[in-house]
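Person: I keep going back and forth on a fold encoding question. Show me how you would write down a chain together with its backbone fold. Please set it down just below, with no commentary around it:
Helper:
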Amino acid sequence: QVELVESGGGLVQPGGSLTLSCAAPKDLFGIITVGWYRQAPGKQRDMVATISRYGKTDYTDSVKGRFTISRDNAKSTAWLQMNSLKSEDTAVYYCYAYYFEPYWGQGTQVTVSS
């Protein structure tokens, strides 16, 4: 079992920035892929960004150049820095980890609105 603890999120104006964080168990963090998915109302849950244990990153096209995912294995934490936010980024963001199977955080709401 991999328990993921998320923080961050909230309400921000278009063009603003937010940072999400996700903490995972210390004994596993160094060997797992982590990332974020998001789900807007009435839509499926889609991948936003992932980072492997080796630091290899992957982003969905719509966030490339705006979002940055990073991790610190010593702190057992990953971050998603979101810049130049748009209204279409509004969704519930779920931290994700993969360790033989997918695991999910509790989700945090990100609302981009003026």
Observations:
- The chain has a mean pLDDT of 95.
- DSSP finds one helix and eleven strands in the chain.
- The first strand starts at residue 5 and ends at 7.
- The longest helix spans residues 26-29.
